[in-house]
Design goal:
Elements: E1 2-3, E2 6-7, E3 12-14, H1 23-31, E4 36-37, E5 42-43, H2 52-57, E6 68-72, H3 76-88, E7 93-98, H4 103-106, H5 118-131, E8 136-143, H6 151-161, E9 165-172, H7 184-192, E10 197-200, H8 206-216, E11 220-223, H9 233-243, H10 252-287, H11 293-301, H12 306-319
Parallel strand pairs: 3-4, 3-11, 5-6, 6-7, 7-8, 8-9, 9-10, 10-11
Antiparallel strand pairs: 1-2
The protein binds flavin mononucleotide.
Residues 15-20, 40-41, 70, 97, 99-100, 139, 169, 200-203, 223-226 line the site of flavin mononucleotide.
Length: 341
């Protein structure tokens, strides 16, 4: 999989997720097998560029190349400026967000709201591609609604504008995250364009990854929610694509060490107060479905310091059983998160 001058080590990409794919998470996923990871979106609104949140999102120090920064907005000139600024700060690939259905984003005619104004889509693609010397990629959905799927039109516009790769989520804006992603549109788009196509939506296992790659003919796949609390899914998928065999679940001690390392990175990145709060959701994802995890989470949510939180996690894994054993998901009836997906 090649994007501009960057030859990725494989076809597995971490989907951008605001509030999730921060630098510690991206680095962890890359370490565990992802070929590329897209940053959380950075707004094109200049007024917000000095907020702590945006500054953190633009911090890529120590990250494995290529550094991909996603920008979101609705105004071509502002997006072009945001692209230039981020390249100045180390971005090696700029990704334009035309897929986010969030109200906060759509109300300002950005994200997937752009799909209702194709003239503006064209202006944005041209302005951003012209603004920077690095590859520009586009992430979008199949359309605004099922009646008017614009994916084919947008894909051709992207190719004509010089977009280096297209990521397509098999849902419309109106679908939000409901129902199942469909891959027919992704397959049709793949047949219509020559630039690399990345398939996205509901890929949550090695077998599903294989199916989606085969069915759509996509050059790569992008994984979001299934990597939450399971960043090792990338090596599991790669192993399956390479050998046709499933890896056994990871060992308890490996996941304990991996989690504690992740927590340390989060604490260092966000500091004591935010670090403790942001780590909570990752801990909840990691432990979902494991024995006794519901009670553990309730207690863990109440802890207010990173030191207590780290100790609680280490202790939970000690109680989980023999550390040389494989991780076992039990999805007990009391585990409300076990049934979430
Ligand atoms: C919590 C969360 C945050 C997201 N933030 C972004 C974002 O900042 N930019 C974007 O293009 N998509 C965003 N998405 C959409 C994902 O990139 C992806 O397209 C979607 O989750 C479908 O893939 P999946 O089924 O593998 O999760 C977000 C999704 C989630 C769940």
């Amino acid at each position: 999989m090649q994007i501009g001058p960057y030859q990725l080590k494989n076809r597995l990409i971490v989907a951008p997720m605001a509030g999730v794919t921060d630098r510690p998470f991206r680095m962890l996923c890359k370490k565990l097998g992802a070929g590329m990871a897209v940053s959380e979106m950075i707004t094109a609104n200049k007024a917000l560029w000095t907020t702590q949140k945006t500054l953190r999102r633009a911090d890529h120090s120590g990250e494995v190349e290529p550094i991909v920064v996603q920008i979101a907005g609705g105004d071509p000139a502002m997006l072009a400026e945001a692209a230039r600024l981020n390249v100045g700060q180390g971005a090696q690939i700029i990704d334009i967000n035309m897929g986010c259905p969030a109200k906060k984003v759509c109300n300002v005619a950005a994200g997937s709201a752009l799909l209702r104004d194709l003239d503006n889509v064209g202006r944005i693609l041209e302005a951003v591609v012209a603004a920077v010397d690095v590859p520009v990629t586009l992430k979008t959905r199949t359309g605004w609604c099922r009646e008017t799927k614009t994916a084919l039109t947008v894909a051709r516009m992207a190719e004509d504008a010089g977009i280096a790769a297209l990521a397509l989520h098999g849902r419309t804006r109106e679908d939000m995250y409901r129902g199942e992603a469909e891959y027919d549109t992704i397959r049709a788009v793949k047949q219509a364009i020559a630039i690399p196509l990345i398939a996205n939506g509901d890929i949550d296992s090695p077998q599903k990854a294989r199916q989606v790659l085969d069915y759509t003919g996509a050059d790569a796949i992008m994984i979001g929610r299934a990597a939450q609390g399971r960043p090792w899914i990338f090596r599991e998928i790669q192993h399956y694509l390479d050998t046709g065999a499933l890896l056994p679940p990871p060992r308890v001690d490996e996941i304990r060490e991996l989690m504690l390392g992740h927590l340390d990175e989060l604490y260092a990145f966000y500091g004591e107060y935010s670090g403790c709060r942001i780590a909570r959701k990752h801990i909840a994802w990691y432990t979902r479905g494991l024995a006794g995890s519901n009670a553990f989470r309730q207690a863990m949510y109440r802890l207010e310091s990173t030191a207590e939180q780290r100790l609680a996690v280490a202790d939970y894994f000690r109680r989980l059983g023999d550390e040389t054993e494989r991780l076992t998901y039990v999805y007990d009836d009391n585990d409300e998160m076990g049934h979430e997906q």
